[in-house]
Specification:
globular, 8 helices, alpha/beta, 14% strand, 221 residues, Rossmann fold
């Protein structure tokens, strides 16, 4: 059976929770594509991915789906690799975040690149959010950590997000995956050992959240 090993690990009741979960992934690049792969292989049946980009040659060092699809749409390619997922081909900007209904989803995994978008997503669905921070410019996967946004450290993107949230007087808590490892280059050099670890860690946190969740995970005002 395809998920026999998962059932052995989680048990029937918890595995059923995993299968029933409804998860949204924002961005399916070097981090998000690994989160997708992990969730799909773990048995999550209801996954929606959002992205607008096409693959280019430079994506091939870290993004699942890129090897044979340079020039192709990411969400369309991944829909072929992971049958049954839902796709939204959409550029994620502030207007889209403000108009999108996050309520139907149990969890939202944010692997988007744009800082302003990440901030607005946090404001919109912080209770169900697991956010990826900066994974580029690093080589040590053992330094990847999970914490509250307010306890993250050593990451320039996290610092910027915290500062902007403070300016907006937003003090709610949400989970982030980050690395305090010092950047090794100024450009966005990347290593799949770290970007992939970020994605797998997002998946692991999502699975733990699913297993801990009460019957309803709907947002409350």
């Amino acid at each position: 059976m395809r998920f026999e090993r998962c059932r052995m690990l989680f048990g029937e009741e918890d595995f059923a929770k995993i299968q029933r979960a409804k998860i949204l992934i924002l961005g399916v690049g070097g981090v998000g594509s690994y989160a997708l792969d992990c969730l799909y292989r773990t048995g999550v049946r209801d996954i929606t991915i959002v992205d607008y980009d096409t693959y280019d040659e430079s994506n091939r060092n870290r993004q699942i789906g890129s090897d044979c699809a340079v020039g192709e749409c990411k969400v369309s390619t991944l829909a072929q690799l992971y049958p049954g997922i839902s796709v939204i081909k959409q550029k994620m900007d502030l207007a889209w975040v403000e108009s999108f209904d996050f309520d139907p989803y149990d969890l939202v995994i944010d692997a988007a690149d744009t800082t302003r978008v990440k901030i607005e997503v946090a404001k919109s669905c912080y209770r169900k959010l697991i956010m990826s921070l900066g994974s580029a410019k690093r080589i040590d996967a053992s330094k990847v950590q999970v914490a509250s946004i307010w306890k993250s450290h050593g990451d320039a993107l996290a610092r910027k997000i915290r500062n902007e949230l403070k300016k907006a007087k937003f003090d709610r808590n949400f989970t982030v995956v980050f690395s305090p490892e010092e950047a090794r280059c100024k450009e966005k050099g990347s290593f799949v050992g770290v970007t992939g670890t970020f994605g797998l860690t997002l998946c692991s946190e999502a699975v733990k959240r699913i297993l801990q969740a009460k019957p309803s995970t709907k947002e409350t005002p």
